[in-house]
Write the structure tokens for this entry.
Amino acid sequence: MHAWPASEVPALPGKGRDLQIHDTATQGTITLAPGPVARIYVCGITPYDATHIGHAATYNAFDLVQRVWLDTKRQVHYVQNVTDVDDPLLERALRDNLDWTELAERETALFREDMTALRMLPPQQYIGAVEAIPGIVPLVERLRDAGAAYELDGDVYFSVESDADFGKVSNLDAEAMRLLSAERGGDPERPGKKNPLDPMLWMAARPGEPSWDGASLGPGRPGWHIECVAIALDHLGMGFDIQGGGSDLAFPHHEMGASHAQVLTGEFPMAKAYVHAGMVALHGEKMSKSKGNLVFVSALRRAGVDPAAIRLALLSHHYRADWEWTDEVLEQAVARLERWRAAVSRPDGLPADALVEEVREALANDLDAPAALAAVDRWVDAQNASDGDDESAPGLVSRTVDALLGVAL
């Protein structure tokens, strides 16, 4: 599966700072100092309804991570999956009388278009669950053969008790885990499971649903968590720098994936940092597909909204914060974009070397994009209030905003 084209990232003078980021597992801020190649895995969409503002906010956060790392003169190895077969996708296809593969392809194509418009840097590997199945099956077999998985009516479940470090990603108690498991795709009430939290690794073929050869597992399809584990281990290896996604993935998805990987490899942890973006609400409720209260990037673009303004609206909120999308948020972003473009359109301006360092410092401090925007606002206000004579300043500001914030002026 192919990703989307990459926009050019301008080189800035000097060198950026190492990233300090909030780690869900340790519940504190840690400094990441990767080697020459920084490694990041971000969980992708289930392509039945793409791309809403909640998606965009999440991928914007991890785009900033890449830009901070690139500014430190590192390379970035970024991997993202597409869960192109799963219950919600099949249910939506049935509801709309569509072939599930056509639905997945259509929504994935739309997601690519939106990511391109928003100037999100693409992953080096963009892998669908279906194409990952040949690598998933051997992992499930290994877990079963090691006694870390068991069969139940043809399905194969992972035993969470096989991982001594289970629970160290989300830090939740058993009751909270059980409630979230029921809400987020698990089946804690299924009779016969060794532990209500045990997640499915391989679902035996169901009538009328797609299935694949599972070798000794029998025909079926993979569970959600093992999909990401197989892709991440194959392309990044164990102990990569960041496992990312929305805050609703901390449990069960990232918790379960970490345990799968740790039992498979005998190493801990799967990722050095577990980084989670906040949720976006609309009309007082979390924006979600199940509720249907979605604002789509593609709809905004069709209405003539500049993608740069959409990106500025996302950047105006800290990535870990829960916030609400409103008309006012977008209006403020449109106005900010106009002010910035007017300021850098002048032939000369106030020196901007200090601004570059302010933006770098803000983003290195747990991706504090609002602080970065405020720094640019101050330069723009000063630029509009006085006459500068630095001919290089407007261009440097434009390159800084482009390279570090992903906004083309």
